[in-house]
Design a protein that fits this description.
With 150 residues, this protein is of the alpha+beta class. It is 45% helix and 15% strand. Strands 1-2 form a two-stranded antiparallel ribbon. A two-stranded antiparallel sheet has the order 3-4. A hairpin with a 6-residue loop joins β3 and β4.
């Protein structure tokens, strides 16, 4: 049992309080297709996952990410992140409006992730081999892209 516990510890996510697998999905806004996926152990931070994925968008491409990707703006000039409040201060109404606008632009990504999660293998507890998760996730992304048609 100790060997299995050690393996699970590598995948343990403090946020979810259980062993998890983390996935990153890159989506094209125009075609709504999943362009790229990358996976890691649940313990890893979102930005570290982004760095290890070696996704390098072109200069003219606008990248819209959530606050888990703090630091992505240093590697790509056209990265839009939510505005964070300063310690002990509240966000101004203009900053809240900007955050709301940026969140609505990211909503398309969340809708596509929701479509992928309709396949319960992604949204529910994964009870199969971890090695096969990437294959199955990519197959589901392929089915999603196929359903969109040309």
């Amino acid at each position: 049992h100790r060997k299995a516990e050690k393996k699970q510890k590598r995948y343990y996510s403090g946020k979810k309080k259980r062993p998890t697998l983390k996935s990153q999905v890159v989506v094209d806004k125009q075609s709504q297709r999943v362009i790229c996926t990358h996976f890691c152990k649940g313990k890893q931070h979102d930005f570290k996952l982004y760095q290890s994925s070696n996704v390098r968008p072109m200069r003219e491409t606008e990248v819209k990410v959530d606050s888990g990707y703090q630091g992505a703006q240093h590697g790509h000039a056209k990265t839009s992140l939510p505005i964070k409040k300063k310690k002990g201060q509240a966000l101004s109404s203009e900053a809240k409006q900007v955050n709301q606008q940026r969140a609505s632009q990211r909503a398309l990504n969340e809708h596509i992730i929701g479509r992928l999660k309709r396949f319960k293998i992604i949204s529910c507890r994964y009870r199969n081999r971890r090695k096969r998760f990437t294959l199955r996730f990519n197959l589901i992304a392929g089915i999603h892209n196929f359903e969109l048609g040309d």
